[in-house]
Structure formats: C-alpha cells, structure tokens
Amino acid sequence: METDTSGDKHKRTVLALRSIELYSAALSAAADQTEEMRRLPQETETWLHEAGLFKILQPERLGGFELDYVALVDICEALARADASVAWNVANLSSHHWMLGMFPPAAQSAVWDNNPDALIASSFIFPAGKASPEEGGYRLTGRWPFCSGVDPSSWNMLGAVVASQVDGDPPEYRIFLVPRHHYEIQDTWFATGLKGTGSKDVEVKDVFVSQDMTLGVGEISGGATPGSQTNGSALYRLPVFALFPFVLSGCALGNAQACLDDFVQWTGQRASKYSGTQLSQLQSVRIHIAAAGARIDAARRIMRGICIEAMQDAQNNHVPDLLTKTRYRRDGAFAVGLCTEAVDGLFSASGAGALYTGRRLQRQFRDAHAINAHIAFNFDAAGSNNGSVELGLASDNPTL
Fold first, then answer.
1. Cα dihedral across residues 2, 331, 242, 158: positive or negative
2. Which of 210, 277, 304, 383 has the maximum number of C-beta atoms within 10 A of its C-beta?
C-alpha cells in the first residue's frame, strides 16, 4: 500500500511555482537571448537546476520531487507565461527522469549513480532509427530530428524500430538509452518558433546497446514496468504514450495565458490611432478577450482533468483500455488547438501593432504554432485514430 504523500507533494508544487513566479521576469528578459542562442543560456539552465525543476518527476529516492503527473501541466504553464522555449525544455527533460524510472534498474544506475542531475534528451520518432537484435542487446543506427535540449544533455532516449525475426509478425517499437559519446549532434535547429529549445538532430552510427539499456513501448503502456522493483509508486505505472500530449501541453497553455494577459493590459491602455476611441470600449475587443479566455480555461480543465484521472487510475492499479487511451490523445490535441485558436484570435484583434518585434505577441504567435505543429497535437491524426477505435476498428498508433 502506498504512503499518502499528497500534502508533501502539494508543498513541493507550491514552492516550485513560487520559484518560477520570482524568476519569471528574468526569464522574460532573457527570451531574446534564448532565441538568438537557439538554446537555453547557461544562467537559465543553472537556475532550473537550482530550483529543482528538471527533477519534478524524478523518484524521491534520488532527491527528486516525484510529483503527480499534473505537475507537468501546472509547472510548464507557469514557465511558458515567461518563455515557451524554457517551458518546452523543462517539459521534455523532466519527463525523461520520469521515463527513466520505468527502465530496468541497470539503466537507472548507469545514469543516476554517476549523476542524479544528469539531463536526458530524446526523439521518439521511431521510424528514424533501425535496430537489429544481437546477443545481449541490439545494434542501433539512425538519425533523429527534434532532440530538444540536447546540448546540455549527457544521455539520449532514442526510439527505433526493431524488425521482427518471425515472418509475418509486426516490428517492435523500442527505446534505446544512449550516452553522449555514442551519438553526434547535428546543428539543424533554425526555426521560426520555439527557437530557444535547441531541438537539433542526433545521429547514431552502428552502436551496440545492451538489452538492459532499452525499453519496449509495450512495457510502458500502463501498469508494472521493468523499473517497478525500484520505483513502485503510481507515477511510474502511467501509460506513457497515451498521456504523451500532456508532457508538453502546459507549454501551449502558459503561452496562451500570457498572450491574453498581455493583450488585456495593452488594450486597456490603448486608443485607436484613427478614431481616438479607447479600445476597451469596443464590444468586439471585449468579445475577443472573452473568447480567448473561454478557450484557455476549457483547455486547462481538459489537461488537468485527464492527468488527475490517470493518476487516480494508476493508484487504483487500473490500466485504461485502448479506447480511453485514444480519447486521451484526442483530447490532448484538442486542448492545445484551443490554445492556438486563442492566440490567433488575439493576434488578429491586435492589428498592425502585433507585428512589431518589440512586442511579446509576435513570439507568442510563433511559439503557439510551433507547439501546435508537434505530432502529439495533430488533431487529424489523434481524431482519426480515436474515431477508428470508437467504430471498433484497429488503432493505427503502435505506441498505445
């Protein structure tokens, strides 16, 4: 039976959010530098370590916070109000501590015994890598895009396809934990949004990865995992890829909320250059504010509600069925779409003033669309798969 630590977790979450609130002005002030560097500045990275924000889902036995899954949404929302690129890196890198807790104990020891603060990047674009079984492990080769936060990371989780050794059987999707000296970073991250995330390519050329440094996708679909003997709490029994949208969705939420807050403040002080009318007196402006707020609040309820529901299921040792998993993916994509719509509406309502690079709105607009471009937030893909399963057809998402 698990010990009730909800009070301690609440205190840790409050402390983390308070740290972000105190440092948010500095993050906002550094946003231009972060974009120019195309990765986190050293000062930002150092503060994130000191605040413990990379460790929010790391097992408590290693000095991590081991917070409930909903903390990803709450903490990344708070960070994204200052800078979505910072939130995106924290979301990715902190979630890999969570996932490492599901790997075999030998993999956990390989990383954490040497440095419990080690950062781990990832790319779960499975077709980008190919792996073939060998005695004691696998031979891995591939080139993966979108490895956010790869520069300060000393490890990487890379998804690859393992061809079946039996004719007619489907290939296996598997994750490989690879140390920094076994992959090359390719500087490809020249993007219009989330510019500061350092989401570069990595390449692996014919590297052997031992069996205990790998994890099958089917082993993290809910319930006990290879890491359960060392990390037995409900957090490490969650279905990883069913909940994958909520690793990152808080970034969209905080970015949209900041956009609304800035719009309200800016509009309340502004008059039309043509008529002299105070914009706050225009009904259309008020409606835009209300519409954006409704979308953002609805998105927050969806994101937090699903994370809380999933934790309760895991605490009760209940693994959601495939239909529920596709609904999680569907609703995660839908919620981020609401945030994107909110930003689009506010950008449109801001007129030509939104075009100036000195205003945060142009970055919020770019970041909103960069976030929405992630495959986890593609509603066509998530919705089509959910519709298939609702109709009794097969799922086309092999990670669920």
1. negative
2. 304
* pTM score of the predicted model: 0.94
Per-residue pLDDT of the chain (400 residues; tens, 9 = 90+): 455 566 788 888 888 888 899 999 999 999 999 999 999 999 999 999 999 999 999 999 999 999 999 999 999 999 999 999 999 999 999 999 999 999 999 999 999 999 999 999 999 999 999 999 999 999 999 999 999 999 999 999 999 999 877 677 789 999 999 999 999 999 999 999 999 999 999 999 999 999 999 999 999 999 999 999 999 999 999 999 999 999 999 999 999 999 999 999 888 676 555 555 666 667 788 899 999 999 999 999 999 999 999 999 999 999 999 999 999 999 999 999 999 999 999 999 887 777 888 789 999 999 999 999 999 999 999 999 999 999 999 999 999 9
Cα radius of gyration (the chain): 21
Q: Are 156 and 202 in contact, with CB atoms under 8 Å apart?
A: yes
- What structural domains does the chain harbor? 6-117 (1.10.540.10), 120-218 (2.40.110.10), 245-390 (1.20.140.10)
